[in-house]
TrEMBL record:
A Gene Ontology cellular-component term: peroxisome
Gene Ontology biological process terms from the UniProt entry: glutathione metabolic process
Keywords per UniProt: Transferase
Keyword Ribonucleoprotein: no
Residue ranges annotated for the DSBA-like thioredoxin domain, each copy included: 3-196
Catalytic activity: RX + glutathione = an S-substituted glutathione + a halide anion + H(+)
Pfam family, one: DSBA
Biological source species: Alca torda
Keyword Transferase assigned: yes
The protein's Enzyme Commission number: 2.5.1.18
Top EC group: transferase
Protein name listed in UniProt: Glutathione S-transferase kappa 1
GO function term, MF aspect, one: glutathione peroxidase activity
Family: Belongs to the GST superfamily. Kappa family.
């Protein structure tokens, strides 16, 4: 998802698109779809697939020029970290000042995937907010909002919306084109996305 976020943000002023980031909770998507997919599990939980993913993520990080650092044992760190607080913080931002959504999302990804910090910890959420350029007043307001029913309901709604469009994992991109929604799953579908909307794929780092 970090790869997809970075590359789509690079293309938002090159392709004729209106890019809208919609915070959704992956855990909720996995839970809802496992009833229909007979045990929908993250790929890394399958031993051989996890072994392959470890190598592939390193290759993709170089190809996409995204600073992901991953090593053996990291999958346990990932599965053992709750991202719900971070997702609610991002959702509160989406409800308050959506213009900050892109830098805030990026800083959460960098802290988790590049600096390998535990983003469930309040001090790391504060550090992310500072790095994204948020004022201390706005940060405090968002922290107060994350336990509110309004934020919880909004995150639930966007998660349900993703499921409605057919999402079963992340990254999930819905392209609304010619009056019809088109779901794309996976960061390796950007070239296909461009083809469907009539835009040219110029590689992961377009000039």
């Amino acid at each position: 998802t970090f790869f997809m976020l970075q590359v789509l943000c690079r293309y938002q002023h090159i392709w004729n698109i209106d890019l809208r980031l919609r915070p959704a909770f992956l855990g909720g998507i996995m839970q809802a779809t496992e009833l229909f997919l007979k045990g929908n599990k993250p790929p890394a939980m399958l031993p051989k697939r996890g072994e392959y993913m470890l190598k592939d993520i390193k290759r993709m990080a170089k190809y996409y020029q995204v600073p992901v650092k991953i090593s053996e044992g990291d999958f346990q760190r990932i599965f053992g970290t709750s991202t719900l607080g971070a997702m609610r913080f991002i959702t509160a931002m989406d409800m308050t000042q959506p213009g900050y959504l892109e830098p805030l999302s990026r800083e959460f990804w960098i802290r988790f995937w590049s600096q390998r910090e535990d983003i469930s910890q309040p001090e790391n959420i504060l550090a992310v907010a500072r790095q994204a350029g948020l004022s201390s007043e706005l940060t405090q307001k968002l922290l107060e909002m994350i336990s509110s029913p309004a934020v919880k309901n909004r995150l639930r709604e966007t998660t349900d919306e993703a499921i409605k469009y057919g999402a079963f994992g992340m990254p999930a991109v819905v392209a609304h084109f010619n009056g019809e929604p088109h779901l794309f799953f996976g960061s390796d579908r950007l070239e296909l996305l461009g083809s469907v909307i009539g835009e040219k794929w110029l590689g992961p780092v377009p000039s």
